[in-house]
Specification:
Glycoprotein, Type 4 Pilin; 5 strands; alpha+beta; elongated; two-stranded antiparallel ribbon; 150 residues; 3-stranded antiparallel beta sheet
Length: 150
Protein backbone atom coordinates (compact mmCIF):
# COMPACT_ATOMS: atom_id res chain seq x y z
CA UNK A 1 0.00 0.00 0.00
CA UNK A 2 1.33 3.35 -1.02
CA UNK A 3 0.74 6.64 0.89
CA UNK A 4 0.17 9.73 -1.21
CA UNK A 5 0.99 12.32 1.50
CA UNK A 6 3.94 14.53 2.28
CA UNK A 7 6.75 13.37 4.51
CA UNK A 8 7.84 15.38 7.48
CA UNK A 9 11.14 16.12 5.75
CA UNK A 10 9.44 17.56 2.64
CA UNK A 11 7.22 19.81 4.78
CA UNK A 12 10.23 21.06 6.79
CA UNK A 13 12.18 21.72 3.57
CA UNK A 14 9.25 23.68 2.12
CA UNK A 15 9.04 25.82 5.29
CA UNK A 16 12.78 26.48 5.18
CA UNK A 17 12.63 27.53 1.52
CA UNK A 18 9.69 29.86 2.19
CA UNK A 19 11.58 31.38 5.16
CA UNK A 20 14.64 32.02 2.98
CA UNK A 21 12.49 33.72 0.34
CA UNK A 22 10.81 35.95 2.94
CA UNK A 23 14.12 36.89 4.55
CA UNK A 24 15.48 37.86 1.14
CA UNK A 25 12.39 39.97 0.39
CA UNK A 26 12.29 41.94 3.69
CA UNK A 27 15.23 44.26 2.87
CA UNK A 28 13.49 45.16 -0.40
CA UNK A 29 10.34 46.14 1.52
CA UNK A 30 12.40 48.26 3.92
CA UNK A 31 14.13 49.95 0.99
CA UNK A 32 10.78 50.76 -0.59
CA UNK A 33 9.50 52.10 2.73
CA UNK A 34 12.54 54.41 3.09
CA UNK A 35 12.17 55.57 -0.52
CA UNK A 36 8.52 56.47 0.13
CA UNK A 37 9.46 58.32 3.33
CA UNK A 38 12.24 60.16 1.48
CA UNK A 39 9.78 61.26 -1.20
CA UNK A 40 7.17 62.31 1.38
CA UNK A 41 9.74 64.31 3.38
CA UNK A 42 11.02 66.13 0.28
CA UNK A 43 7.45 67.03 -0.71
CA UNK A 44 6.68 68.27 2.83
CA UNK A 45 9.83 70.39 2.77
CA UNK A 46 8.82 71.92 -0.58
CA UNK A 47 5.44 72.79 0.93
CA UNK A 48 7.13 74.35 3.98
CA UNK A 49 9.33 76.42 1.68
CA UNK A 50 6.28 77.62 -0.28
CA UNK A 51 4.49 78.50 2.96
CA UNK A 52 7.48 80.60 4.03
CA UNK A 53 8.40 82.40 0.78
CA UNK A 54 5.29 81.90 -1.34
CA UNK A 55 4.65 80.02 -4.54
CA UNK A 56 5.79 81.86 -7.70
CA UNK A 57 3.79 79.41 -9.83
CA UNK A 58 0.54 80.71 -8.30
CA UNK A 59 0.12 84.05 -10.01
CA UNK A 60 -2.51 85.98 -11.89
CA UNK A 61 -1.19 88.20 -14.68
CA UNK A 62 2.25 88.25 -13.03
CA UNK A 63 0.95 89.09 -9.55
CA UNK A 64 1.60 86.48 -6.86
CA UNK A 65 -1.57 84.99 -5.46
CA UNK A 66 0.19 83.21 -2.59
CA UNK A 67 3.10 85.28 -1.27
CA UNK A 68 3.77 83.31 1.89
CA UNK A 69 4.53 84.19 5.49
CA UNK A 70 7.69 86.17 4.80
CA UNK A 71 6.09 88.60 2.34
CA UNK A 72 3.02 89.07 4.53
CA UNK A 73 4.80 89.53 7.86
CA UNK A 74 8.09 91.00 6.63
CA UNK A 75 10.37 88.33 8.06
CA UNK A 76 10.61 84.53 8.09
CA UNK A 77 8.76 82.70 10.86
CA UNK A 78 10.67 82.07 14.08
CA UNK A 79 9.49 78.45 14.14
CA UNK A 80 7.55 76.18 11.78
CA UNK A 81 4.43 76.28 13.99
CA UNK A 82 4.12 79.98 13.12
CA UNK A 83 2.95 78.82 9.69
CA UNK A 84 -0.19 77.35 11.27
CA UNK A 85 -0.80 79.45 14.39
CA UNK A 86 -0.42 83.22 14.57
CA UNK A 87 2.55 84.02 16.79
CA UNK A 88 2.38 86.60 19.56
CA UNK A 89 3.85 89.93 18.54
CA UNK A 90 2.84 89.62 14.89
CA UNK A 91 0.10 91.96 13.68
CA UNK A 92 -3.15 90.65 12.27
CA UNK A 93 -3.62 90.95 8.52
CA UNK A 94 -4.37 94.48 7.40
CA UNK A 95 -6.02 94.31 3.98
CA UNK A 96 -5.25 97.99 3.25
CA UNK A 97 -1.56 97.81 4.08
CA UNK A 98 -1.35 94.20 2.88
CA UNK A 99 0.75 93.40 5.91
CA UNK A 100 0.46 91.03 8.87
CA UNK A 101 -0.29 87.39 9.56
CA UNK A 102 -2.58 86.12 6.79
CA UNK A 103 -2.44 82.43 7.66
CA UNK A 104 -2.61 79.64 8.19
CA UNK A 105 0.05 79.12 5.55
CA UNK A 106 -0.06 75.34 5.88
CA UNK A 107 -3.05 73.04 6.10
CA UNK A 108 -3.74 72.88 9.83
CA UNK A 109 -5.31 69.44 9.39
CA UNK A 110 -2.12 67.96 7.93
CA UNK A 111 0.45 66.13 9.99
CA UNK A 112 2.55 68.11 12.47
CA UNK A 113 4.78 70.37 10.34
CA UNK A 114 7.64 69.99 12.79
CA UNK A 115 8.31 66.32 11.92
CA UNK A 116 9.56 64.52 8.83
CA UNK A 117 8.19 61.19 7.56
CA UNK A 118 10.47 59.24 9.95
CA UNK A 119 9.11 61.16 12.95
CA UNK A 120 12.31 63.23 13.36
CA UNK A 121 12.13 66.93 14.19
CA UNK A 122 13.10 69.21 11.34
CA UNK A 123 15.95 71.56 12.07
CA UNK A 124 14.75 75.00 11.00
CA UNK A 125 17.13 77.96 10.83
CA UNK A 126 15.54 81.21 9.61
CA UNK A 127 18.93 82.99 9.62
CA UNK A 128 20.65 80.38 7.44
CA UNK A 129 17.36 80.01 5.52
CA UNK A 130 17.35 76.23 5.73
CA UNK A 131 15.05 73.41 6.73
CA UNK A 132 16.88 70.15 7.41
CA UNK A 133 15.58 66.63 7.93
CA UNK A 134 17.95 64.21 9.67
CA UNK A 135 16.81 61.53 7.22
CA UNK A 136 16.46 57.82 7.92
CA UNK A 137 19.23 57.61 10.53
CA UNK A 138 17.60 60.34 12.65
CA UNK A 139 20.89 62.14 13.30
CA UNK A 140 21.72 65.57 11.91
CA UNK A 141 25.06 65.48 10.14
CA UNK A 142 24.80 61.72 9.73
CA UNK A 143 25.46 61.86 6.01
CA UNK A 144 21.91 61.38 4.77
CA UNK A 145 20.40 64.72 5.79
CA UNK A 146 17.90 66.33 3.44
CA UNK A 147 18.37 70.11 3.20
CA UNK A 148 15.94 72.60 1.70
CA UNK A 149 17.21 76.15 1.20
CA UNK A 150 14.75 79.02 0.88
Amino acid sequence: MRDNGFTLISVVLAIIIIGILFSAAIPNFNGAKDAARMSTTKEEMKNLKKAIIGDPELNSDGVFIFQGYEADVGQPPECLNDLITKPDGVDNWNKWKKRGWNGPYMNAESADVRYDAWGNLYSYDPNARTITSPGPDGALGGGNDIVMNF
